[in-house]
Every structure is written in C-alpha cells, then in structure tokens.
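agent> fetching stored inputs for the pantoate docking request
agent> found them:
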Amino acid sequence: MQVITTISEMQQWSQQQRRMGKTIGVVPTMGYLHDGHCSLIERAAAECDAVVTTIFVNPLQFGQGEDFERYPRDMERDTTIARAAGSSVVFAPTTAEMYPSGFATTIDVGPIAERFEGAFRPGHFRGVATVVAKLFNLTQPHVAYFGQKDYQQCLVISQMVRDLNMDITLRILPTVREQDGLAMSSRNVYLSAEQRRTASLLYRALQAGIDAIARGERRRQHINKRMQEILDQIPDARIDYAAAATAERLEEPDEFPPGASVVLLLAVRIGSTRLIDNMLTTVPYD
Ligand code: PAF
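agent> prediction call returned; pasting tokens
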C-alpha cells in the first residue's frame, strides 16, 4: 500500500489507474479509523480494482469552538488498519496542500444542508461538500463509499453529485455498532467510562422511535417525545435534536402517511462530546 501526500502524485496515480482500465473506489475519512471505516474499505476492495482511503481532518467543516484541534489523529495506526482492510493507497494531504493561500471556492448545496446538523453547525456542510468535491477531483473515483451514520452528510453529498453531474456512484453502507448499540465513531474516545455506558441510550432512543412507528404512531411530535424520554435518562446530556423527518428531504410534517420513509435523527452532547446517530424505517399500512 502506498501513502500519498501530494495532490500532483494523487492525480497522477488516479489517471494511471484509469488509463489501465481499473475501477477506483474512494473512502473519504478524517482518520482514527474504526470498524465502521473498515466495512467501507472492505466493500470498496471487494467491488473495485483499486481503493483510495483518504485521511484528512478538514478544518473547513469545523466551526469556532468545535473539536478540530483535539480530533483524534494517529497516522501510523490508520495506515496499518487501512492496509489490512484492503486499501491500495492512503491519501493524507496536509492542510496547506488542500487549502493553499488564496483558496476561496466553496460548495453550498442548498436547503438540505440547512436543517438539523446544518442548523446547529452553520457552514459545516459547506466544508464537507467542498472537501469531498476536492477529494473526488483528486482521486477520480468510479465509486465512493460513505457510512449511513452521517445520514444528512450522505444526503448532502448525493445532492452535490446529482446537481454537479459528477460521474460517481455513491454507496451508503449501514452504521456499524458496538455490542450495546452505540454507533462507532472516532469521537467515542472522548467519552469517560460512565459517559460511554450511558451513550448506548442513543441507540435505545432510536429503537423506541422505531417501535412507536411500528405500533402505528404517525404523529411526529409523539415519535420525537418517545426518543426524548429515553435520552432524558442520560445525566449531563444536552439534546440538540431528537427528530423524525422524511428520509429524502428531511421535512417535518405533523403526521407521516402510511408507506412514508422516515429517518429518526439524534444529536446529543454528553459532557463535551457531541454524538449523532440515526435509523431509517417505513411507516406501516394499517
Ligand atoms: O465523514 C467524514 O469523516 C467527513 O465528513 C468526510 C466525509 C471525510 C469529509 O471530511
């Protein structure tokens, strides 16, 4: 496995792969790889001839006072994991390489980026869309792999790919969970032992929402309340949102009709750690 840090080398490698008729899969990450990332790399390796795992903690998607500085980083560990999971290349550029002085262009995908995460983290999805567009240009993938864990991010990237006619297939793979249901995330390392124990209530809250819908609840506020009640059991928690929304556009009708695809979205701060999670379901017919 090769480690590439410069844009010119990355583009040359991608062009060469394409000239040889190879399919390229890309797995964009911010590093500190866990089993969720591995599931993406493994799938990419199974489906593509060559796999690029990108590792870049993107300053553009962090707001003032967020955890950019303390975001966990361990390149040696990451390259070992990326190699074992089947990467052909790790692309790990510096910030100066990605954003040289004078850099000014950003991508704004419109309303889908303004709700939920977008409302609590203004500018976050502009940073995500911009860096992902750059990573796509540099790695020239046929297929790009993302985790459902970042559900709204997946919608933002789908919108960008569609609107800008990017010739890339997106694969969204299921969230990988710890035994107690906590979604794997690089940020889980911030949690103390006690916080880690209660963090599984996010999963329980989502399940409570899913159960309510399965039992016939269609009223959005009632579904939200079911999730909220579980999250309220977490000491030291601040709920940014616990919300049911339409899966495609993240709209919030008073009631979901039978057959509707619904996503349950959570963002909860436990102490200074902000966790997000989600689950998808379909409203049953009577
Ligand atoms: O999901 C992430 O890790 C990041 O948002 C991404 C897609 C790598 C862009 O920096």
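agent> quick read of the result: Residues 124-139 form the longest helix (16 residues).
agent> awaiting further instructions
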